[in-house]
Amino acid sequence: MIEVRQYQFSSREFDEWNTFVAQSKNGTFLIDRRYMDYHMERFTDCSLMFYSKNKLIAVLPAHRDDYTLYSHCGLSYGGLILSRKTSTAQVCELFGDLNYCLREIYSFKRVVYKSIPWIYHNLPSEEPLYALSKVCKAQIISRDVASVVMLDRRLPLTELRRRGVKKAMKVGMKVVEMDDFAPFWDILEANLMNRHHTKPVHSLAEINLLKSRFPQNIRLFMALSEGDFVGGTVLYIDRGVAKTQYISASDKGRTIGALDFLFNRLLDKFANEGYRYFDFGTSNFKASDDLHESLIFQKEGFGGRAICYDTYEWML
C-alpha cells in the first residue's frame, strides 16, 4: 500500500521535497518549494508526498479550492513527479490510494490535474497518463498548444521572419543578457496594459526574487538598438529545455524586427550549447483553449511545431 502524506512546510519536508525533485525523472525547478512558495498566500496548499516502505517515491504539487484538488493553478504544469525507480504498477496503485484518501479523508469530490509535457522528462515518464485513464477514468478538459523547436532538427525561418532579421541587422542590433529586469518590465507592463488591460503574472519584485533563487534557470535576454532596449524575453531553462515565460517588444522594436533577430540568435545559442528543445509557450486565449492564430503564426515562423499542455479532470 502507498502511504499518502500532506506536505507540512517543515524544514525536514522542505529539504526532502526539493532533494527528491532535483533527482526525479520528470521534475523541474518550478516544482522546487523555493519556486512554488513565492506565491503561497494565493493558494491553500495541499501538496502530497507518497511513500512505499517509508521511501519517498513521488510528490504532487497541489492546492485546494472548496471540494476540488488542483495540481496546480499557480504553475505551468504540476503533475505527479516520479523517482527514476517508480514503476507503472506502483503509479496505478498510487492513484488508487490517492483517490481513496482524497475522498474518504479529505472530503474532496473532484480533481483537476495538469500533466507535465514530455519534453521536460529526463526519462520516459508517462506512467501517470496511463493511470489517469485506467484507474481514474479521467477526461481531458483543456488542451493548450505550444510551439516547440527541436534544436537538432531545426526548420528554416519563414521569409517573413528572415526579413525581420535583416531589418535588425541593418541597424546594428545586438543581443545582451541582463540581470536587471526593470527595463524589460517597463516594456512588458506597458504592452500588457495598453493591449489587454492586464499586468504580468509576476511583479518586478517577484521575478527578481525568483531570479535570485534560480539564477541559472531564469534568464533575461534583450535586443539593443542604438542604445535603446527594444525587446526581450525571459526564459525558464531546465533539463535541456529553454522556455519563453515572457516576450515583449517596444513600438520601435516591432518596426525594426527586434524579436525576429533576438530569437534567431537565441535558437543558434541554445542549439550550439546542446539544448534539446526551445519552447515558445502556448498560443491559446486565456478564457478558452481556442487557438490564437496570429500568435502561433509568429512562433511557427521560427520553426516551432505543436506539443500539447493537457489538463485532466475526474470525479471522486
Describe this structure in words.
By secondary structure, the protein is an alpha+beta fold. Helix content is 34%, strand content 29%. It has an eleven-stranded mixed β-sheet with strand order 2-5-6-8-15-9-14-13-12-11-10. β11 (218-225) and β12 (228-238) form a beta hairpin. The longest helix has 17 residues, at 88-104.
Can you lay out the helices and strands and say which pair or pack?
Blueprint: E1 3-6, H1 11-23, H2 33-36, E2 44-45, E3 48-52, E4 55-60, E5 63-65, E6 68-71, E7 81-82, H3 88-104, E8 110-114, H4 127-134, E9 139-150, H5 159-170, E10 174-178, H6 182-196, H7 204-213, E11 218-225, E12 228-238, E13 241-249, H8 251-255, H9 258-272, E14 277-282, H10 293-300, E15 305-315
Parallel strand pairs: 6-8, 13-14
Antiparallel strand pairs: 1-3, 2-5, 3-4, 4-7, 5-6, 8-15, 9-14, 9-15, 10-11, 11-12, 12-13
Notable traits:
316 residues; alpha+beta; 11-stranded mixed β-sheet; 4-stranded antiparallel β-sheet; 10 helices; 34% helix
Strand percentage lies at: 25-35%
Point out poorly predicted stretches.
none
Encode the helix/strand succession as letters. EHHEEEEEEHEHEHEHHEEEHHEHE
Summarize the biggest pleated sheet.
11 strands, mixed
State the helical fraction.
25-40%
Structural class: alpha+beta
DSSP summary, beta strand count: 15
| Spatial gap, N to C terminus | 19 Å
- Strands of the widest sheet, in order across it, are 2-5-6-8-15-9-14-13-12-11-10
What global shape is seen? elongated
Return Rg in Å. 21 Å
The number of helical runs is 10
Q: Averaged pLDDT, please?
A: 96
